[in-house]
Design goal:
alpha+beta; DNA polymerase, domain 1; hpI Integrase, Chain A; 3 domains; 3-stranded antiparallel β-sheet; about 10% strand; disordered C terminus
């Protein structure tokens, strides 16, 4: 019988296991005689580590070598061998997770994601903070649902029609663009939407303000966003607005407008130019709020944009423009379905006189010319319903006192003042 040659290599594909002949010599018996014992050692690499197993019988060693090489070749042993300490850690982890009914793989996946999101923040402290400050109280809601809820709240609170219509117009576009849950919307998405509107800076900022109001409502009232975190709209970009000269009509231009405008729009043109009320306020104005005898226009809170009562003095020229049209009660300028249609009618009336239409110029004129006469920022702010800051930034030193005197001297033709008459003569020369 041929002598077996060692090492014996057992192979299956690229997997291999070697069997070495490794006899032992040990002392045996009472006299300590050395006795030689046969032994065979399996050797193979697995999981980056050298594995050795010893057998006293070659047949048993061959059987185990066949099993090992087959398992390696089939991938059944494609797992590293754990050390004693690693096995202990694994068992402890499994036991801890079993009480939460969570698998080790799920726990590791969630931990890695949380650690990446939290960066250097302690995860236990973060979880305790979230639990304490209402993370479990968030009720996810979509933008369309929050849009409807916000408008309903504003109506219930008695907000002005102007404010509600403004919110409706701006936020309706937002809800059509974003139908998802509001907590899924990012600052980058809001910025991209605002830029995509293609609006001038001031109008874009107004849209941003409406979106911020929606997110504030979702956070404070609807509990659809965590109240302890800034929301996406907070960080949305605010576009720098270019400084523009305030659009004004000169006294000469206003004389042309008043001389040639349709008779039914004279009250509207006069009260906007010589009392400075907003177009939306004009649409809601009633004759009961116009006290020509007492010399005041007494705007009710329901009439004003800011929902605050306001007193505006009736100038002498305004009294003369309004007296022929005076009524005891009823709408001041009837016949228009909305503030928008009234504004369009006024713009059309101005354009038919050959005078360029300037956006919001009638109110700007009152503010600027009144500022030139009074020189009192707080007083003009009170009369116009503006902030003192707005007056300082936009209306100081735009016109001279002489021009302001001419402006408030513009009267119907039969009572024309000296200052306004001089302007008419100058414009004809």
């Amino acid at each position: 019988m041929a002598k077996t040659k060692f090492p014996i290599t057992v192979k299956r594909g690229s997997a291999s296991v070697k069997i070495y002949h490794t006899p032992d010599t040990q002392k045996a018996g009472p006299n300590g005689k050395l006795v030689r014992y046969d032994a065979f050692t399996l050797s193979y690499v697995f999981g980056g580590r050298r594995i050795r197993r010893k057998f006293s019988d070659l047949t048993e060693a061959r059987t185990e070598a066949d099993n090992a090489v087959t398992a390696i070749a089939n991938g059944a042993m494609d797992t590293r061998v754990l050390s004693t300490s690693e096995v202990s850690e694994y068992c402890d982890a499994r036991e801890s997770l079993s009480r939460l009914n969570i698998t080790l793989a799920s726990a590791i996946t969630e931990f890695v994601a949380a650690k990446q999101a939290a960066d250097s923040v302690n995860l236990v402290q973060a979880a305790q903070f979230l639990k304490r400050y209402g993370g479990d109280k968030i009720t996810r809601q979509t933008v369309p649902d929050l849009f409807d809820a916000l408008l309903a709240l504003k109506k219930a609170e008695g907000a002005g029609a102007y404010h509600i219509n403004d919110l409706d117009t701006r936020l309706r576009k937002f809800k059509e663009a974003f139908t998802s849950f509001i907590d899924e919307i990012t600052t980058d998405q809001i910025n991209a939407w605002l830029t995509g509107l293609g609006l001038e800076a001031r109008t874009q900022n107004n849209y941003r303000a409406a979106v911020v109001q929606l997110f504030n409502f979702a956070k404070a009232k609807a509990k659809a966003l965590p109240h302890w975190l800034p929301h996406a709209a907070d960080e949305a970009m605010r576009v720098k607005e270019a400084v523009k000269d305030t659009g004004l009509y000169t006294p000469e231009e206003m004389i042309t407008i008043m001389r040639n405008a349709p008779a039914d729009l004279i009250p509207a043109l006069a009260i906007r130019a010589f009392a400075g009320i907003r177009n939306e306020e004009l649409f809601k104005l009633s004759w009961q709020e116009v006290d020509l005898d007492g010399g005041w226009i007494k705007l009710k809170s329901a009439t004003t944009k800011l929902r605050a009562r306001r007193l505006i003095p009736v100038s002498d020229n305004l009294r003369e423009w309004l007296t022929p049209h005076l009524k005891k009660k009823g709408p001041f300028q009837p016949g228009y379905a909305s503030a928008k249609t009234l504004s369009e009618a006024i713009s059309h009336a101005i354009s038919t006189t050959g005078t360029p239409v300037k956006r919001n110029a009638l109110r700007n004129c009152y503010t600027s010319y009144r500022m030139a006469i009074l020189g009192d920022v707080a007083k003009v702010a009170e009369e116009t319903g503006n902030s003192p800051q707005m007056i300082r930034e936009n209306y100081l030193e735009l016109v001279t006192p002489k021009e302001a005197e001419a402006w408030f001297s513009i009267k119907p033709l039969h009572t024309e003042s000296t200052a306004a008459g001089a302007l008419v003569a100058k414009s004809k020369s």
